[in-house]
Amino acid sequence: MSEFVMESCKVNEDGHLTVAGVDTVSLAKEYGTPLMVMDENKIRQVCRIYKKAMIENFGENALPLFASKALSFKGIYRIMAEEGLGSDAVSSGEIYTAKEAGFDVSRMVFHGNNKTDEDIRFAMESGVGRFVVDNIEELEAINRIAGQIGIKQKIQIRITPGIDPHTHKAISTGKIDSKFGNAIATGQAEEITLKALDTPNVELTGFHCHIGSQIFETEPFISAAEIMIEYIADIKKKTGFSAFELNLGGGFGVRYVKEHPYFDYSAAIKTIADKMKNSAKQHGVKMPVIMMEPGRSIVASAGLTLYTVGSVKQIPDFKNYISVDGGMADNPRYALYQSQYEIKIANKINAKSDFVCSIAGRCCESGDLLAENITLPKAERGDILAVLVTGAYNYSMASNYNRLGRPAIVMIKDGKPYIAVRRETLKDLVAYDM
Ligand SMILES: Cc1ncc(COP(=O)(O)O)c(C=O)c1O
């Protein structure tokens, strides 16, 4: 077991942090910083865990869909295709990226609480497999556009089961007060379901729910799944419609820091499946084909970000800041949610840690921080700082704030690094300016 939260991190004889067997200090030197480094083998390993657990417990048609909002670029869709996963998408941009990678978008579900007419048409013309319908206006737009194109679009309806998954409120989306989906408790779920069954250019295949993200307990997932089975039974009784698909969304927790627990995805899937099968039996419904949408848990622990230290500012009797050459532009998660990270000085892993400091990014915002009051070895300009477990919702949330180019992504496969996404250049930054 590694001494770091990322299993693929170790220390080499130079006292440098390594990832997937490669010296991070050498990677920083060769590819520049800020740099995202991803362990491809680790991504594939987690994909296989999901695939195996879902097929063993839910049957051979069960399908994990990678929630590509967590990390979207062509290479990641190629990996998902090779591992036999489907994917979700939330925009034409994600669908287009997947298509460009040769991904079979019939294995894709299309999410979002405000799909534009252009998105809907693009997704249909691309052959996206399922739309997850969020609201009645969208259902009407899908019906209209499917009619114009001359297809019957398969859909799932997004249901809000009303679960509070005890997580950060900004990322818990299964409660009744949510911008997503249709609550069972308010009657809106039934209303949109009845309408969908009466809408000519759509084929309702089943339902979808997603209760939130970074959840470590299995209980909220079991409750949501049982509520969904009950809902399927209720709709069957009222209309005769037997949902044959149920998409349980994503949300399994990731160990960002040592205080976070290990979460056994296989064991959780088995427990959820056992409880669901019982519930289906009790309610007299056939177990639907199950889909899940893990995002964070597939890519987070496969990635880290490397920065170069620029300055160490000591405010006497008050606070110390280490400033790095990235920050909220490549990783807005601390600014958004005060997300915790394990942070190391990659070239001084064995040095004594006694310098209490905050890590500041380079953007013109006081809130541009990556951590506060952590203890590191005393750093100096030129040191390499590593932020671990940044594979999810970092690159995909990155911006060009302050006209900073997005970092490169270097993947390591079988001990060999390669550039999966190149660094944005100054020219890229003015590419759209007229
Ligand atoms: C609908 C939906 N599915 C899947 C996910 C992925 O969740 P996670 O990355 O926590 O697995 C999200 C993220 O919030 C989501 O909104």
Question: What tags apply to this protein structure?
Answer:
single chain; 434 residues; alpha/beta; Lyase, Ornithine Decarboxylase, Chain A, domain 1; TIM Barrel; nine-stranded mixed beta sheet; eight-stranded parallel beta barrel; globular; binds pyridoxal-5'-phosphate
Put the structure in a nutshell.
With 434 residues, the chain is of the alpha/beta class.
Would you write up a description of this structure?
- It is a single chain.
- The chain has 434 residues and is α/β, with parallel strands linked by helices.
- It folds into 2 domains: 9-39 and 300-429, Lyase, Ornithine Decarboxylase, Chain A, domain 1 (Beta Barrel); 111-294, Alanine racemase (TIM Barrel, Alpha-Beta Barrel).
- The chain has helices spanning 24-31, 40-58, 74-82, 92-100, 117-126, 136-149, 188-197, 219-239, 265-283, 296-299, 333-337, 426-429; strands at 9-11, 17-19, 22-23, 35-39, 63-67, 86-89, 108-110, 130-133, 153-160, 182-183, 202-208, 245-247, 289-292, 303-315, 319-324, 343-345, 355-360, 369-376, 384-388, 408-413, 416-421.
- The strands form 3 sheets. Strands 4, 14, 15, 16, 17, 18, 19, 20 and 21 form a 9-stranded mixed beta sheet that branches. Strands 5-6-7-8-9-11-12-13 form an 8-stranded parallel β-barrel, surrounded by 5 helices. A 3-stranded antiparallel beta sheet has the order 1-2-3.
- Strand 11, helix 8 and strand 12 (245-247) form a beta-alpha-beta unit.
- Helix 2 (40-58) runs parallel beside helix 9 (265-283) and helix 8 runs parallel beside helix 9.
- The termini are far apart.
- The mean pLDDT is 96.
- Bound molecules: pyridoxal-5'-phosphate (PLP).
- Pyridoxal-5'-phosphate (PLP) is lined by residues 67, 70, 88, 111, 173, 210, 213, 249-252, 293-297.
